[in-house]
Amino acid sequence: MKKITSFFVSLLCTLSIVFAQSSYIDTSFGVDGVSNYKIAEYLEADGPLNMDITDSGKILKIGLASNENDESLNIINQFNSNGALDLNFGNNGILELNDFIGYDIISKNNDIYISGTSTINGNIGILKLDSAGNKVSSFGNNGVALIDKFALGMTIKIDSNGKFIVAGRHINIDTEEEQLLMTRFNSNGTIDNAFGTNGALQVNISDVVDNEELYDINLELFDNNSLLVTGTVYTPENGTPTGEYEYNEFALKANSNGVLDTSFGSNGFSIYYDLTARSANIFDSYILSNNKILITIDGFDDSGFTGEPIQGLLRLNSDGSIDNTFGSNGLLTIYNENFYILDLFDSNLDDDIFILGDGNDENNNWHILILKVNENGIIDNTFGENGILSLDFPDYDEIEYITNGEELADGKILVSGFNNDNNGYILGRFFKENQLNVSDKALNTVALYPNPVRNEINIKSTQAINHLQIYQMDGKLVYNQYLNTNLADVSLLKAGLYIVKAFSGNKVETFKINKL
């Protein structure tokens, strides 16, 4: 996964958000566009609720739960691409982990990799499952790869060589100090001793700043397999240079061999005390194609927890310094009490980035909110309504919160979260365009004829049409051609209604055709 300028600040402050469009929902997913299952007696909303999409389009979710006896459970679910539980996975779509606590989940070639911690010895590592939820015995030791480090494996990535990097919190049993730990495993689950010292890189944050606990650890990889680790460090009162900031964002960079990159920050580590907020957390981070770094910020202003909420993005240069060309001195503040950032995810179709959040309208009704920006942080005003896409789970009012977003291969957006009604996951699949806005007649600037059409579409426009896309009504892209003529051959399309997008430069017209 790959997993915004100051103009954006004033835009959000004055933006009149158009909320709640049920016409964006993809009703072919789940039941009327929503998949909602009770997973356990109680699902931990504060636990890991991560999501990934397999190569075959199945949806993976991981979380912590408890049963009716208040016993803790670590649950993995697999859903089919249509939102139904995959009954061939685990026990009718639900797998309870034993002897391993999972935090993050990714997939490759439909196999599943979970970072976490052994409940037997507390060591950090990876659990590998096949697509049915069975342990892959050829990986590590009967499906589990561990290194002798007492730590929580909070996040996992696969590098370009097929090796696995896990980052998390290492707890020094003697001193009870928390350290950052990064470890790397070979593709077969053996420890990669070429990484760091005997397969691990440990960083004692207390050498840089007095700290009591680490939170929100995120791992990203640069194209050359260098590591970026971001997170939040809790410092005791008067534990920072300013003497007052308690929660502070940090970033660390190491090269692909597991050695701190001394050209980044101060000897590989950088902490951002007073730039953002008195008390702030990191939800996500993202490396841009130019190697600059985006970090989401969630916190409060200098009044502490009683102050105004601050949501925004911090952008760093590749050396860890603040990118002062971005926002206001490197920080884009979304000073809007109706937008709370939760996730960043990239577009599969272009270089843009989606910012997922949620918020309430003037009537205190809750909505999913998505912004789309390009790599320079410029908001796409053509996206959604005036730059913000507002979505709803129809007939669901008591959603605890949204946790993850993903753009699927067909361009639709999958959103997952936690449902307060039944302590279960809730998933929704959405179009990025309001389906009620698709015109039933030819537009003034573009005319396609004949319509209905059997073999060829003739294109008539006041501007040159150089690109044509045709989608089935379920959103699947079935025709994608760049044109040097005013004719488009659609003879191979099946009979039915289609949505057509005709592009002229960066402008687009959208309408329907009937294929005979």
From TrEMBL:
InterPro entries: Delta_60_rpt (IPR013431), Secre_tail (IPR026444)
Domain of life, per lineage: Bacteria
NCBIfam families tied to this protein: delta_60_rpt, Por_Secre_tail
Start and end residues of each Secretion system C-terminal sorting domain: 448-510
Keywords, alphabetical: Signal
Leader peptide range in chain numbering: 1-20
The protein's name: Delta-60 repeat domain-containing protein/Por secretion system C-terminal sorting domain-containing protein
Pfam short name (any one): Por_Secre_tail
Record carries keyword Signal: yes
